[in-house]
Amino acid sequence: MSMSAAPQTSSTTTLQAHGVRKSFVSGRVQSTVLHDLTLDVHASELTLISGPSGCGKSTLLAILSGLQPADAGGVRALGHELSGLGMRELEHFRLQHTGFVFQGFNLFPALTALEQVELPLSYMGLAKGLARKRAIESLEEVGLGPRMRLRPAELSGGEKQRVAIARALAKQPELLFADEPTSALDSANGQIVIDILHRIARTHGTTVLCVSHDPRLVGHADRMLTMEDGRILSDHAPPASLSTAYGAKEPSA
Amino acid sequence: MVALARKTLIQEWRRFLPAILAVGFAGLLQLLQAALVLGIFGSASVYITGSAADLWAGYPGTQSVNLGRPIGEDVAMRLRMDPDVTKVEPFRWVDADWRGPRDTGGVSVFVSGIDPRPDGMMFSRALPPALRAKLNEPGAVIVDKADLDSLGVSIGDTAAINGQRVRVVGVSSGLRALGGVNIVSSLDTARVLDIDPEDAGMMTYFVAKLRDPSKAKAIAKRLSGSDAFGPYTVWTAKEFARQSQLYWMLDTGAGAGVLFLAGIVFLVGAVITSQTLIAAVIGSIREYATLNALGVGRGALRKVIMEQAFWVGALGLICSIVIGIVMLIIARSRSVPMELHPLTAGVCLALSMALAIVSGLAAMRSLRRADPASLLR
What we know:
The structure holds two protein chains of two kinds.
Chain A: E1 13-26, E2 29-42, E3 46-50, H1 57-64, E4 72-77, E5 80-81, H2 87-97, E6 98-101, H3 113-123, H4 128-141, H5 157-169, E7 175-179, H6 187-204, E8 207-211, E9 223-228, E10 231-236, H7 240-245
Parallel strand pairs in A: 3-8, 3-9, 6-7, 7-8
Antiparallel strand pairs in A: 1-2, 1-4, 4-5, 9-10
Helix pairs in contact in A: 3-4, 3-5, 4-5, 5-6
Chain B: H1 4-11, H2 13-42, H3 46-49, E1 55-58, H4 74-81, E2 85-99, E3 106-114, H5 129-134, E4 140-144, H6 148-151, E5 158-161, E6 164-172, E7 181-186, H7 187-193, E8 205-210, H8 216-223, E9 233-236, H9 237-251, H10 254-283, H11 285-293, H12 298-333, H13 342-365
Parallel strand pairs in B: 3-7, 4-6
Antiparallel strand pairs in B: 1-8, 1-9, 2-3, 2-5, 2-8, 4-7, 5-6
Helix pairs in contact in B: 1-2, 1-12, 2-9, 2-10, 2-12, 2-13, 10-13, 12-13
């Protein structure tokens, strides 16, 4: 059941984990969170990792995105070997290639939606005009064009998460990581957010890796990985019936 | 570039207010303390700074202008012989006892006997010519208007100094003394008031004017060379004023007290400011961690914190400057001796800015908690 073939063999592999192991020490007890895990993730797909809490899915996301080093094994992202990189090089890699969406929206209270999105762009070295143009485009893409002058306090939870997505999207990343992006949202807003993530994978060719235990997401994923105790239990395309039932725009594969 | 530091400061001003106030009050305290110390101890040398003389000749080893001992008239001859000296004038200092018409008891006073001519050097900056001329009347004295109450007189009243009758013919300002009350009289009046037989025919200082004041240092050194005209030393006015002020500052222990207080103010200010800045960083730690996840480097985040610290410092300084100016104006109008030179003010303000920067460095350390992996749950 372990490493079955990915559902879409045609698409390019952008993210590879090979024999990744990670353990944590608490007191005298050493607990292994990831057991020699091997995985390929593809571009233009929304890949969903689900599993009970504590199964190691967030740790896997942290390692695949270059936020945390693995104890053993290697991670290859967009042709770069991440395992050997130092803190600065990892920061540079993340700045150029990755976007993040977290469960908490983590927006600066003092900045308007537009400024939140512009902020990382200015650190990428983009000219002011270009940064502004990209930020506006991203906010329009997530449907917040009319509300981009508002601060977080004036936005709803769903809108805040869409600002966070626009912030990640405006960087035009090849890799987009999302950690429980819908669990703080009601069903309607959760639906909007997952639709946006799916659309990003399709229209921008982005590799979207999403970690969640939210069952509402299952129907929208192109590929679904189930984890338990630091291992991948299953890897398959979700049933098409579910996809249509949740109103996905096009059936995968 | 999005001005994250400034926008956060404006949006969350309540959070930063304690830090701004801490910097502001630290700066204000340093400024006022420096102004008071300089003002109070500056009055120890008012005889020198209020006069136009370039050189002072007095008893060797005199530590402060109020501690002068009698020197012979020959010293004046020696000064006049120097080709660079254009004018020499005696100055007689008399420690005396004042009895006013009102019930004030004895007041310890310092009588300054000066040449009352309009072009006299002594107190040329404190006494306008018309007022000086009034000193020609025998027994005439001038006091600072802030001292009228403690002397128990008004203008025109008579009183007794060392048992001799004197009359207050006018008041001036900027004549206040340390440890007593300054009385200005003519040389003749002062001679009458000086009852110490040792002082007969002697003066306390001779002051001199130079053709080229910029050469004062070299000339003072040259004149101090010999003892042929009796014991004396020549100082430049600047040097002697500084020496007198330092004597008072160190002799009274006030200097150490001021430094100690400045240290405490700095410490308390830094604790409040750094704690406030740290709280602000911690309050936004998840947002900083998110930026770091998106690839914004630690160095760039540290810069945001330092920029915040700088603005906190700048706003604090504006507070201290505005309040400081108001306080100085009030003090001036009430004859409180306060004096502030641009350099001293600059040092005080630089100290306050340093306080803000040090606090920013302390707050920067708490950025370590901005670990993007901790955002994943």
